[in-house]
Amino acid sequence: xQAAVYRGNSVVxxxxxxxxxxxxxxILIRVEACGVxxxxxxxxxxxxxxxxxIYGHETAGVVAHVGSNVTRFxxxxxxxxxxxxxxxxxxxxxxxxxxxCPVYRKVGVTAGFEPAGGGFSQYVRVMDWxxxxxxxxxxxxxxxxxxxxxxxxxxxxxxxxxCDPQPDDVVLVQGQxxxxxxxxxxxxxxxxTILATDTIPRRLELSKQCGATFSxxxxxxxxxxxxKELTDGRGADxxxxxxxxxxxxxxxVLCSRPGAKIMLFAQTSDKEKIEFSGASICVGERSLLGSxxxxxxxxxxxxxxxxxxxxxxxxxxxxRVPLDKxxxxxxxxxxxxxFPGENPxxxxxxxxxxx
Length: 355
Ligand SMILES: [Zn+2]
Ligand SMILES: [Zn+2]
Prior knowledge:
The protein is of the alpha/beta class. It has twelve helices and 16 strands. The chain has helices at residues 38-45, 91-94, 128-133, 144-147, 150-163, 178-189, 201-209, 223-230, 248-255, 278-282, 299-308, 326-334, and strands at 2-8, 11-16, 27-35, 58-66, 78-81, 109-110, 123-126, 135-137, 170-174, 193-197, 214-216, 236-241, 256-264, 287-290, 317-321, 346-349. Strands 3, 4, 5, 6, 7, 8, 15 and 16 form an eight-stranded mixed β-sheet that branches. A six-stranded parallel β-sheet has the order 11-10-9-12-13-14, sandwiched between helices. It has a two-stranded antiparallel ribbon with strand order 1-2. The protein starts with a strand and ends in a 6-residue tail after the last strand. One zinc ion is lined by residues 86-87, 89-90, 92-93, 101, 103.
């Protein structure tokens, strides 16, 4: 089969590799669509994990083979797959902090080499503990590319539930990339007043279609003043930080009212330092929250929400590429500034397409 193999030094090559073999309790999926996620791009750009690896974890496809003892699935089932599933029993799982579970960190979907998701290839092997709890069937009428949003949507829904927004809340979403736009959609379902910010006109335009009440470029508009105007001088009730531009968390604190919740969703770098006064948290009684990765508790709910058609997810897809074009897709997603006019958002890799 063909696969995009990360070879080290930020190089990805499309190679012929062995189609994975499956064992008892496992299934083989023919990958039809896999979303490109920034966590994969980071691992490639900064060489975070030793090569060779085949990345890609927002995977949708068709069951091609089932191992012995598999009863829930059969060949030709259309499915999405999560690449991590927690043990359900450890200290962290008991406290519902699934992303901290040691078993959760073990990747259970692979196209070969050290398991890394494998979705940027034509077939993936799904290991038994994932088959049991991490695979959902896609209903008829839902495309593979929309179904591939189940995993990223789950991560956003988890963060939204942690903040528990109410219909009369005024919420600031900083950054309207694919993740920020998912937040905007979910908050719109909750009936919140949403102020969405970004510096790219196309993203601001989309944020309106995704439910933002106000879509603003912070370079042209005084965002804290606008929020105060909407809240009798208080500031945002909740802020979602959905991009990692320097100084943005400081801005989030400035834009929020006393007692607000501030969700750090894009602050995944160990190197990023954030600086504001202790009093803005202590005296201002603000809560800084973090959320990372998906929750198995809302797996069904996030799948149902994606499949329901209630969210305009198709708007987020900017590019569809065959494997041969994956290097371009990665460059485009990592350095959008080098490709004026392309406006990348969610890029979907379609491994069965020929160039
Ligand atoms: Zn992802
Ligand atoms: Zn656990």
